[in-house]
Amino acid sequence: xxxxxxxxxxxxxxxxxxxxxxxxxxxxxxxxxxxxxxxxxxxxxxxxxxxxxxxxxxxxxxxxxxxxxxxxxxxxxxxxxxxxxxxxxxxxxxxxxxxxxxxxxxxxxxxxxxxxxxxxxxxxxxxxxxxxxxxxxxxxxxxxxxxxxxxxxxxxxxxxxxxxxxxxxxxxxxxxxxxxxxxxxxxxxxxxxxxxxxxxxxxxxxxxxxxxxxxxxxxxxxxxxxxxxxxxxxxxxxxxxxxxxxxxxxx
Length: 251
Description:
- By secondary structure, the chain is α+β, with helices and mostly antiparallel strands.
- The chain is built from 11 helices and 8 strands.
C-alpha cells in the first residue's frame, strides 16, 4: 500500500477521534463574566425557584438578609453574620493563583494614582478565562457572610473541633469540615470544577475525599433542580450532575 493511500485511510480515523475528543470535553461557563451579574442571576432566577437555605448551616434568608440563622453563632464577623454572601465552593484563590495576573500583576493593573495591583482584582480586570471561572454559577452557593469569611480558602478535610453554634461546620488549622448536609454538594461541585477547568487541579487526597463524600451523601432532588435551572441559564452541561441526577431519576 502506498503512503498516499495510507494517509487517505488514516485521515478519516483521525477526524473521528478529534470530534470524539471534542464531544467528550466538558465545557465550562461562557455566559457570565461579571460577578455582580452572576449573583443577580442566582438570587433572581435560581433561588426564586428553590428553598432559600444556605449551603453549610441551612439558614433561611430573604434577599441579602439572614432571616433565621438556624443556630449559627460566631463571635467573629458579626455584621457579616447577618447577611448573605455567595460562597465559591472551590475558592477563587485556589484557581486564581494559576493566573499570572493574580500572582504578578499586569501592566494594565494600575490605579488612577499609578499604584500597581495584583490578585483577584487584576485577574478580573485583565483575564477573560479567569472571569468565566470566577462567575460559574455551579460553583456559587449562598452562605452566611461570617461563614464565608471564616472558611476563607481553606481546603476541606475530616476534622473535629468546635462548631459554629448549632451549625456543625468545623473550621480549624486552615481546614474546613462542612456539615453532612453540604458534603455531597461540596464533593460534586469540586469534581465538576476539576473536570471542566484544566487550571484547577485536585490533589489525590482531595479527590479521594470527594469521591467518598459523593457516594456517602447522594444527590438530592433539590440539588438536581438547581442544576437544571443553572444549565438553562448558563448554557453548559454539568456532566457530573447529569450522571448523578440521571441515576436518581432511574431509581
